[in-house]
Every structure is written in C-alpha cells, then in structure tokens.
Specification:
Distance between the termini: 27 Å
CATH topology of the largest domain: Aminopeptidase
CATH superfamily of the largest domain: Zn-dependent exopeptidases
Strand content: 15-25%
Number of helices: 8
Shape: globular
CATH architecture of the largest domain: 3-Layer(aba) Sandwich
C-alpha cells in the first residue's frame, strides 16, 4: 500500500501563517511525520513525503512524484485561513475531494474527516469539492485536509501544540487504516504512549472553553476535545511521566484539579 503524505506549502511560503507568526508548514510537516509513524505500524505500507524542509516544492513536482511512484492514495495536510489578515471567527475542520467524479476519494475523505471531527471536537465544516492542483493532477484517490483555521485565535493556539498535532495525525492515519482495512504488523511493538494532563471535564462545551481560556491567560497551552460525551480540557502531553507529574503539581498549586491519562 503506497500512501503519499503531503505537507502543504513550505517554510518560506508567503502569507501562510497565523497573525502571531506560526508558519503553516510548521504544523503540516509535524502532522505528516506523526501520521507516517502511525501508518508504518501496519502491514505492507510504504510512505512517500512530497514536501521538503529545504525548499517549497512546486505543486507539479509533488503530483508528478506521486503519480510516477504509483501511489494508492494522496493525502495533503493543511491548516486553513480566512480573510485578508488578523483574527476572525471562522473556525473548524473541512476536507476536500476532487471536482471530478472520484468515488474512492469520496470514501477516503469520509473516513478521514469523520475521524478528525471525532478526535478534535472542532466544528464540522463538512466535505467539499475543489479544483486544487493536488486533487486535479493526481491519478490516485486524493484528499486535502484543513485541520483548523490559523486566523481563528483559539484554533491557532491549538495548531501550535504537540498534543493537537498528534491528535490530527492519529485521526488521519486511523481514517486511512479504516478505508484500506489495513492490518497491524504481527511483530510491531505497541505505539509509544503519552501522558496527558487533564484539568477538567464538562458536559457543556462552554464551561470547557472558559476554563481553557483562563488557563491560556496564565500561559498554558490547552486543548479542548470531546471524549465519551464530555468536553475535556488538556493542558499538556508528555512522553515522560515525570514531566506530566510536574505540570499537574504546578496546576494543583494554583487551585486546579488534575488527572493524568496515559494513552
């Protein structure tokens, strides 16, 4: 199974950044790397990156490489933007398919988009068709994922966090796995877990958003996500439990209740 993971744009692409300075490619490339790690746990999977950390690879070069490689799927990873500049209220996740009839692209988009919405809890902006080069010029099923708006303040802060990048990457990988019915390698070790510091869990999203805003004001990078019917506020994710314990203790000293999840 040959899968192309395409991190959109490049470090020096003009204009592709948040109003406070994060470049879109910073998000795209890390999500692609995490998705690659996850997908390589499955049998007979090969991954091709069409982007580069050294230059902004032209779109024609990207699609030519995917076509000549004989890829089964092309997944382009992006963060969205709206307006001429500054923050605004447009937010959420949307996934694009080609404008020409492509049932396989539609099915892949359905799986990946559903996983992204479930995992992130962000607004569902739906699956749409567009005449983007990477969708038009590829000869395999192809989709383009917009994982949040760089021009929406809350989503921009999420896009900067490692925990949100991992969440998006795992969701994209899970959608691909579901679409192709991929099987885990028999000898593959379990994926490396991470320790997540949870600060609160609420039935009402407004309450979770208010707590997240309060924590953001104190300098913490938070992530609100929906899990088992509750909106949970995550303040950090770490490979080492000691780091999670340290953050949890710091939050408790400031009067917050914390819980550490290992996933």
């Amino acid at each position: 199974m040959k899968i192309v993971l395409d991190a959109g744009h490049g470090y020096n692409t003009s204009g592709k950044r948040t109003p406070d300075g994060m470049r879109e490619y910073e998000f795209n490339r890390v999500v692609a790397q995490y998705a690659r790690q996850e997908l390589l746990r499955y049998q007979n999977v090969e991954i091709l990156f069409t982007h580069s950390d050294d230059r902004d690879v032209p779109l024609q070069e990207r699609t030519n490489r995917a076509n000549s490689w004989g890829a089964n799927a092309f997944v382009s990873i992006h963060a969205n933007a709206y307006g001429a500049g500054g923050w605004n209220s447009v937010q959420g996740i949307e996934t694009y398919t080609p404008t020409v009839d492509s049932p396989n692209s539609d099915r892949l988009a359905s799986s990946v988009h559903r996983k992204l919405i479930q995992a992130t809890g962000r607004r569902d902006r739906g699956i749409k068709s567009e005449n983007f080069h990477v969708l038009r010029e590829t000869t395999m099923r192809a989709i383009l994922c917009e994982c949040g708006f760089m021009t929406h303040y809350q989503e921009a802060q999420l896009l900067k966090t490692d925990s949100y990048r991992r969440t998006c990457a795992h969701a994209i990988a899970e959608g691909i796995v579901e679409h192709f019915s991929l099987k885990l390698k028999p000898t593959a070790p379990p994926s490396t877990g991470i320790y997540k510091v949870q600060v609160g869990a609420f039935k009402a999203k407004e309450n979770a958003d208010n707590l997240a805003k309060e924590l953001n004001g104190r300098g913490y990078s938070t992530f609100v996500y929906l899990d088992q019917g509750l909106y949970k506020v995550q303040a950090g994710a770490f490979a080492q439990k000691a780091n999670a314990d340290s953050l949890a203790a710091q939050l408790r000293r400031q009067g917050y209740s914390t819980f550490i999840n290992y996933e």
